[in-house]
Design a protein that fits this description.
Layout (H helix, E strand, L loop, with lengths): L9 E5 L7 H4 L10 H6 L4 E4 L9 H10 L5 E5 L2 H4 L6 H14 L1 H6 L2 E8 L7 H13 L4 E5 L7 H9 L3 E6 L17 E6 L11 H4 L6 H16 L4 E6 L6 H12 L11
Parallel strand pairs: 1-8, 2-3, 3-4, 4-5, 5-6, 6-7, 7-8
Helix pairs in contact: 5-7, 10-11
């Protein structure tokens, strides 16, 4: 599975790290919670911070986080859900939310570890003139580089892909059940960075409770499929690929991410911190 010209430029992590049920499945028993992030960085070189989706964090908390993360780390930060998931928010309000968001995460930006920002839109966000206008406004005012994940397959459109290329916006490739109107895992590169988010393939429970939606464990064969997607992205000109596991239920994301990193040869051979 290893490829000398590819594997060193693949960055692996999970969509979040602070989950209660990871204490039983990933973090060593008895490890203090304030050491969880340090333990996480002992295995992974990248993290998708998605608590910012639910609420704008306290800047002091972000200062503490910045102190704990290594200088060579890569962080992608998710935009607030009020920007991507609410249609009753005015453009003026979106600008205000974005400013508060940017101020809050400034310690992470100042440390130089922010590799980009993620805007994830719900399946209800369909391609139409109003939503396209909203998307363009978000692209205009967002910090860069911005990566966008659509859940609705309507956005798989050449004119949208061209807009992304013109604005240097990254296309997020989702791995999810190929059902209904969900976005398929088409291999698309709109700038020089590939971005893959793995949600699991839990077709039966996708429209059930959120914890059931992401209750999925990738087999080694499926991880090989993800690596092949990464390879194809490199062949399309990207210089690096970020792979984030979002099947976070019961620590499965961390376990799968460790296995994937091991399979492609980037998992540290010896972890000395713990």
């Amino acid at each position: 599975m290893k490829d000398n010209f590819v594997h060193k430029d693949i960055f692996v992590g999970t969509s979040g790290y602070y989950f209660n049920d990871w204490a039983k499945n990933f973090y060593p028993r008895g490890l203090k919670r304030d050491l969880w992030l340090r333990y996480y960085t002992n295995f992974f070189n990248s993290l998708e911070l998605n608590t910012t989706f639910y609420a704008i964090p306290d800047v002091c908390r972000m200062e503490e986080m910045a102190k704990k993360l290594p200088e060579e780390f890569n962080l992608h930060i998710k935009l607030p859900g009020a920007i991507t998931h609410r249609r009753d928010v005015s453009t003026t309000e979106i600008c205000s939310i974005m400013k508060n968001f940017s101020d809050a995460i400034s310690p992470l930006v100042e440390k130089g570890i922010v590799a980009g920002y993620l805007a994830q839109f719900p399946v209800s966000f369909k391609l139409n003139d109003e939503n396209l206008s909203s998307l363009l406004h978000i692209i205009k005012i967002s910090p860069e580089p911005l990566f966008v994940e659509f859940r609705n397959k309507d956005w798989l459109d050449e004119k949208i892909i061209d807009i992304f290329r013109e604005n240097n916006v990254g296309w997020v490739i989702p791995d999810a059940p190929q059902i209904h109107n969900l976005m398929p895992d088409e291999i698309i590169a709109t700038n020089d960075v590939g971005y893959i988010r793995l949600h699991g393939r839990n077709e039966k429970n996708w429209y059930s409770k959120e914890e059931d939606r992401y209750d999925y464990f990738y087999s080694d064969e499926e991880l090989e499929e993800i690596f092949k997607i990464s390879e194809q992205l490199f062949h399309r000109g990207v210089k690096k690929v970020f792979v984030y596991f979002n099947n976070c239920h019961r620590g499965q994301a961390a376990i799968n991410a460790k296995k994937f990193a091991e399979l492609i040869g980037i998992l540290p051979e010896e972890n000395k911190l713990f």
